[in-house]
Amino acid sequence: xxxxxxxxxxxxxxxxxxxxxxxxxxxxxxxxxxxxxxxxxxxxxxxxxxxxxxxxxxxxxxxxxxxxxxxxxxxxxxxxxxxxxxxxxxxxxxxxxxxxxxxxxxxxxxxxxxxxxxxxxxxxxxxxxxxxxxxxxxxxxxxxxxxxxxxxxxxxxxxxxxxxxxxxxxxxxxxxxxxxxxxxxxxxxxxxxxxxxxxxxxxxxxxxxxxxxxxxxxxxxxxxxxxxxxxxxxxxxxxxxxxxxxxxxxxxxxxxxxxxxxxxxxxxxxxxxxxxxxxxxxxxxxxxxxxxxxxxxxxxxxxxxxxxxxxxxxxxxxx
Length: 319
Known about the structure:
Largest sheet: 4 strands, mixed
Number of helices: 14
Radius of gyration: 22 Å
Structural class: alpha/beta
Shape: globular
Strand order of the largest sheet: 3-4-1-5
Number of strands: 10
Order of helices and strands: EHEHHHHHHHHEEEEEHHEHHEEH
Helix content: 40-55%
């Protein structure tokens, strides 16, 4: 559990990031390439990007283990462009690099020789990493960057609306399913126990396109406080298959029916055709999903039109 302690001054300084942060998106996307979660939302991007990762970009994968601690210096605060973010990373003080690399080793991660040299203060290795991040961004993120920004902007508008309607108390109460506001402490589901006292510095909220699952923050409490969390994706990959958890929960055929309804609003005949099952079977699965609150069905002439519900999307995200 992560506990973030607020004062009245911190509530007054609660801010929402003005745009998608390229360094956090770059980092989170490196997890999506290597981890299976979020297949319905990231599957197509993952499959295309795995083959597009340039050789130099593999340095990023070596510096960031697929699970566990990630060095703070890779996500310098407040980057507006990837160029600005990488330039700020290149200015990281040697003592900070050394501490972050030492922490990576202390967590049991194998630290490759080039990263040890970076931690020892060799500027050439840091420049190599900067080039790798540029190459990775250009090949894997830049083609989708406008869509990333649009999707993050949608969630930012949601946050701003909550802030305007009910102030910081309402905003923090409706931020994310893994976040609970119990004034004056924000409780965040987190892989380790960590406490962050804001002490009048405020908190920056950063919705992130490629994040998935639990929110995250810096390990170093001295850095500008930020809470990075996943947005609620509403668009699925049209060729995505149910993940094993979702299939185990609903059965593979019913999971495919749910995902199909999430991808496209359709009637029962179309649903049967899209999922390659009998019409009666499609109707039965739709009835069970509707009774469970995962889809809705409305009459349109002689047909019923099926649509996903927020609960249905939540089940897909979790599975």
